């Protein structure tokens, strides 16, 4: 660089925040392909409404034990959990 500050001439200006101006800016943005800026809901996988699939957080060693036991039995982890639940309820 030559030592001159090319940004020195820039000045901060207050933005117009009237309802009409915000609406106009949003309309221009949507026309150019920008999406809605409103906050989204919580991130993460949602439970399946059809199967009521659950996604619990378990300790890593517990998760590995469930996975290895299901693999040894030749069933899915969900099937293993269903069997465990039946034994618990029975």
From TrEMBL:
Residues 39-48 have a biased composition (Basic residues). Residues 30-53 are annotated as: Disordered. This is Chromosome partitioning protein ParB.
């Amino acid at each position: 660089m030559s030592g001159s500050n090319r940004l020195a001439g820039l000045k901060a200006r207050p933005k117009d925040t009237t309802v009409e101006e915000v609406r106009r800016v949003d309309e221009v943005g949507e026309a150019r392909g920008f999406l809605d800026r409103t906050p989204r809901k919580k991130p993460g996988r949602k439970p399946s409404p059809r199967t009521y699939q659950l996604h619990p957080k378990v300790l890593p060693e517990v998760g590995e034990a469930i996975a290895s036991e299901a693999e040894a039995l030749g069933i899915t982890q969900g099937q293993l959990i269903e069997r465990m639940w039946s034994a618990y309820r029975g």
